[in-house]
Design goal:
The longest helix has 33 residues, at 2-34. This protein has helices at 2-34, 67-78, 84-91, 95-107, and strands at residues 111-114, 117-120. The protein has four helices and two strands, in the order ααααββ. It has two domains: 1-36; 67-120, Winged helix-like DNA-binding domain superfamily/Winged helix DNA-binding domain (Arc Repressor Mutant, subunit A), CATH 1.10.10.
Length: 121
């Protein structure tokens, strides 16, 4: 009985090995026909390693220090009553960005709104 079980397990292992090789061949053929991506998500073998080095301590693409907020605050101090479109034009940026920056300056107590314009607090 033990010999039968051992030979059956060996037969199953051999068949699985054959099927795995067939799967590899079929996947290679499919990739050659439609490309390397099999669907959504990462392709097989992709890793989560970074390909570039970053400087530690600073997020990529950020200058830090609330630069636009500081620039807007300086303009408000220089020209009390200045409007958001005027600030945007002076800073050469889109006004919609300032509609997020200015309320933060209000919350910090650095500026206040007076009609359409902004004044130092």
């Amino acid at each position: 009985m033990a010999g039968f079980v051992d030979s059956t397990v060996q037969d199953i292992d051999n068949r699985l090995r054959e099927l795995k090789e067939e799967v590899k061949r079929l996947e290679a053929a499919r990739s050659a026909l439609v490309g390397t991506r099999r669907g959504p998500g990462r392709p097989p073998g992709a890793t989560n390693r970074r390909t570039t080095r970053r400087r530690p301590g600073r997020p990529r693409g950020r200058r830090g220090g609330n630069t636009r907020a500081n620039q807007a605050l300086e303009l408000v101090k220089q020209k009390p009553g200045v409007t958001i479109p005027q600030i945007a034009e002076a800073l050469k940026i889109e006004p919609n960005y300032l509609y997020r920056v200015m309320p933060k300056l209000v919350a910090d107590g650095q500026v206040k709104r007076q009609g359409q314009g902004w004044m130092p607090a």
